[in-house]
Amino acid sequence: ARLPELLRAMPKAELHIHIEGSLEPELIFALAQRNGLQLPYASVAELRSAYAFCNLQSFLDIYYAGASVLRHEQDFYDLAHAYLARAARDRVLHAEIFFDPQTHTARGVAIETVIDGLHRACAEARTGLGISATLILCFLRHLSEKAAFETLEQAEPLLDKIVGVGLDSSEQGHPPEKFARVFARCRERGLHLVAHAGEEGPPAYIWSALDVLRVERIDHGVQAVHDAALMQRLAHQRIALTVCPLSNQKLCVFPSLAQHNLGRLLDAGLAATVNSDDPAYFGGYINENFTQVFAATGLTARQAYQLAFNSFEASFAGNADKRLWQ
Ligand code: ADE
Ligand code: ZN
């Protein structure tokens, strides 16, 4: 079979998807209408034309504005259900979904509204779509350690509905060690730990995510190639990187997709995976990330198999999830 067909048909796990980043312009308009909100854009096309970014911050400003139409439990359910139905078509068998509670609680939405809506969609996807889906609560790193602790406290009664915590938002100037104590507390709670590091930020942030936060996976991590000792460590310890090619292209992390370093990471023996990050904003879901980065950089069928294998191996899926896929 041709490589693009193989990529689309191959079973895979998605480990780096921000649910607010799967909010399509059509759903933004539908939710704005349902919730009686006025948008500063006249049409879906006008909103879409504002999606021109050239770094992480310019994207984040629009991403947080888009998320402001999410108000009710049903809104969060509809959002997650739409993503999961779309992921099923891309042969995703397992998804670990990031969400940013602080962007919602800051607008007066209760954290249980967020978590209950997302969790209901995940639970239904097991029977309705045959997908296992779990939730990872992300702390916004541009906010304070105190704000992160308050968020963890609010989430405390709902911890059985999340599998782990992560760290996202503006990377530069907000090193992982700012959240050392929050992550230590989450670790005591038995939560899995991940963090965005080395997307735009330096290799030093990947070191501190590993050594100070004690994370199990690195989200993005593509800047690791600038540090040979770090590359060796990531390879030897089989620490997964959740790489997002179209995101890196749209945020100008690489001059072009052809210059993406995914092949270099795999050649160095790192447990890289392919993911979609914010597919509604970056022009494609997971299969589009696979087909475009393979076409642009000339990766092989063998590397496709390795990426899919890595995605399951690096997941936090349990035995009940694994039984569901069989
Ligand atoms: N939040 C949503 N997408 C993100 C990304 N690519 N980096 C950091 N924070 C994010
Ligand atoms: Zn991300």
UniProtKB/TrEMBL annotation:
Substrate binds at D278. Its cofactor is Zn(2+). The record marks H220 as: Important for catalytic activity. The keyword DNA repair does not apply. Zn(2+) binds at H16, H18, H196, D277. GO terms for biological process: adenine catabolic process; hypoxanthine salvage; nucleotide metabolic process. CDD domains: ADA (cd01320). Keywords: Hydrolase, Metal-binding, Nucleotide metabolism, Zinc. Belongs to the metallo-dependent hydrolases superfamily. Adenosine and AMP deaminases family. Adenine deaminase type 2 subfamily. Catalyzes the hydrolytic deamination of adenine to hypoxanthine. Plays an important role in the purine salvage pathway and in nitrogen catabolism. This is Adenine deaminase. It comes from Verminephrobacter eiseniae (strain EF01-2).
